[in-house]
Amino acid sequence: MMETLLLLRAEPRYRRLLSASFISGLGDWFNSIALLSLLLHITGSGLAVGLILAVRTLPYLFMGPIGGILADRFNRKTILLVSDFARAGLALSFLLIHQASEVWIAYAETFALVVFSALFSPARTAVIPQLVQPDRISQANGLEQSTGGLVMALGSALGGIATAAFGTDVAFVINGASFLASGLLCWSIPIPADHLTDHGDIHPSVHPSRPSSNRTSFWSVFLRPRLIQIIALQSLLWPIGGGAINVLLSVYGYQVFHSGSIGVGVMYGSLGVGFLVSGFLVRRFTKWVRLAAAVGFVIEGLCHVIVSQSPSLWFASIFLFIATLGAGVGNASIITLVMQATSKEFHGRVFAMFDTTSSVTIAASMLATGVLLNDFPARTIGLCAGLLIVLASLVTGVPLLRVNSSPDLGDVTEERALSS
């Protein structure tokens, strides 16, 4: 905890960025719990949940790459502001949903929200190395997991309570206000634009004497370093099971354990606490980042198998917490590996590429899960999803442990220049 306080004290710009994300993240979870509860109440269908969760990821198919390009070629602070203020207005449109015939509004406005989220996400991730000293990157990534967990725990719990006590409209208004507050905070942050160049070439800090084509150097990230190839494969395989889990959490809480919106809140709250604690564990694995990434996701999958067969909500929540510990450490480790293996001029596109790959797979998985819930028990689907996560983690974890450290983009670019 003391190390976290020292980090926040030493990096005031990052502290404001984190505060903005904390506020908007809380609003997001108010929206999520309220919207999922509203859809289940209006339609009574797991398919509706699968569809809305799929819609939350499908825009990444086309907006993810665009968001990455914009984050690398334009002012990242402007992108953050436009995204936040646009989402502040869109979030209020959910107030118009009151009956089954108006469910289409949920799909349309969710799609629009995610379009701006797809612009926001790569820009925000790419900004972190610009605001934090290099020797604090791993610690900052761990803090990202902890903050995300705290947001999830508080947001889901408070969102569930607020939705049950005051109705969904209050939650939707809070979501809109949170985006507005986040935008105002981002406005106050001096964010450098040192990733930009006059002609779109690689930044001189990578190699001052041999500028190379931005496009060629970017694609060399995926064609050359083995480490990045493995992480790209992981971003494709894990979401097959992970997407199903996203759908099942609401179904577990609402229908399997018959706990209504409170049950949904408890399930997501367990996830949040797991991510919160995992962030404080990340620093302990700084010397074993790849091992932490490989083992963490295996633990996650095994715990989801147990969750699927749990006899009660609270028993399931305990193992959901442990699953998220593994996932949180694994996620932070993967992000640190990517930041170390690539240059900041390409972070927007690199993270957008991974986000796009995983989001499209998650969308397909969630849509399939929604359909399967009409014919198969949630517990059976959850068992299969957990086993798929274990399998995906083994397929990518073993080569991740054995691969040599990958060169930085500057090394790749230099080698390409020397060979030409």
Précis, in short:
The protein is mostly helical and 420 residues long. 80% of the residues lie in helices and 0% in strands.
Q: Your description of this structure?
A:
The chain has 420 residues and is an all-alpha fold. It has a single domain, classed as Up-down Bundle (Growth Hormone, Chain: A). 80% of the residues lie in helices and 0% in strands. The protein contains 16 helices and no strands. The protein has helices at residues 2-10, 12-43, 46-55, 60-73, 76-90, 103-131, 137-166, 168-187, 214-223, 226-256, 260-282, 289-308, 313-341, 347-372, 378-402, 409-419. α4 runs parallel beside α6, α10 (226-256) runs antiparallel to α13 (313-341) and α12 packs antiparallel against α15. The longest helix is centred in the first third of the chain and has 32 residues, at 12-43. The model is unreliable at 198-216 and 405-420 (pLDDT under 50).
